[in-house]
Specification:
The chain is α/β, with parallel strands linked by helices. It has a single domain, classed as Rossmann fold (3-Layer(aba) Sandwich), CATH 3.40.50.720. It is built from eight helices and seven strands, in the order βαβαβαβαβαβαααβ. Strands 3-2-1-4-5-6-7 form a seven-stranded parallel β-sheet, with helices on both faces. The protein is globular, with a radius of gyration of 17 Å.
Length: 248
């Protein structure tokens, strides 16, 4: 039970990597506040944690809203009494891989992926510091480390997450560790439309030495390590979990 003494907030917990992470944390003993902009999706994840014998709380929130972020931290503290762990998993991909996205699409992607990482972190900072051993794990992407097939808005937002992670790790040490995971293509609802395109799938898989896309549970396992006390000497890291994509 690697998270027995932890209380975590996981954003984007209604599906994909966020849901897999919330479920894994719950199985490892953490109390988990499951945050999603879709209230029912958050409730489904929290119910699954509780059905397995864990402690779950469902919260609906927009991570780009400063007031909403403060509220979700307050409600977590009211329910569980403390906060040790934050996982910023909420995010979106561009509607299309447009090489010159319009301003509205640029703003949407950057606001959710980058601002939606910073605001929950800022809201949680005081509680994480009070815990004495707080941690934040952000979701960046391989496209935040290298160029690729995604739109500039996505690459910029995820590159921003990776460098925000490094900067906050410096700013908030030694009481709060800040790391990020950089997944490759993961088989989640966010990527299902891409993966249905046979030509795209074949072309993209050729770039993965392990010859397959990842599973959300594999990313959750990396997040679990970074959030656990086993990583007590790890901060400022952007960890690729990508089947070897960035090694080429």
């Amino acid at each position: 039970m690697r998270m027995r003494e932890k209380v975590a907030i996981v954003t984007g917990a209604g599906s994909g990597i966020g849901r897999a992470t919330a479920l894994r944390f719950g199985a490892e003993g953490a109390a988990v506040a499951c945050v999603d902009r879709e209230a029912e999706a958050a409730r489904e994840t929290a119910r699954a944690i509780e059905a397995a014998g864990g402690r779950g709380l469902a919260l609906a929130a927009d991570v780009t809203d400063d007031t909403a972020c403060a509220r979700l931290v307050g409600e977590t503290l009211a329910r569980f009494g403390r906060l040790t762990t934050l996982v910023n998993s909420a995010g979106v991909r561009p509607i299309a891989a447009d090489p010159a996205p319009p301003a509205a699409e640029w703003r949407r992607v950057v606001e959710i992926n980058l601002t939606g990482t910073y605001l929950p972190s800022r809201a949680a900072l005081g509680a994480l510091q009070a815990s004495g051993a707080g941690s934040i794990t952000n979701l960046a992407s391989i496209y935040g480390l290298v160029g690729g097939s995604m739109a500039p808005s996505y690459a910029a937002s995820k590159g921003g997450v990776a460098n925000l992670t490094r900067q906050l790790a410096l700013n908030w040490a030694p009481t709060v560790r800040v790391n990020c995971v950089c997944p490759g293509v993961i088989e989640t609802p966010m990527t299902v439309e891409l993966r249905r395109d046979a030509a795209w799938r074949e072309r993209t898989l050729a770039k993965y030495p392990l010859g397959r896309f990842g599973q959300p549970e594999e990313i959750a396992a990396a997040i679990l390590y970074l959030a656990s006390d086993e990583a007590a000497y790890v901060t400022g890291v952007a960890l690729p979990v990508d089947g070897g994509y960035t090694a080429i």
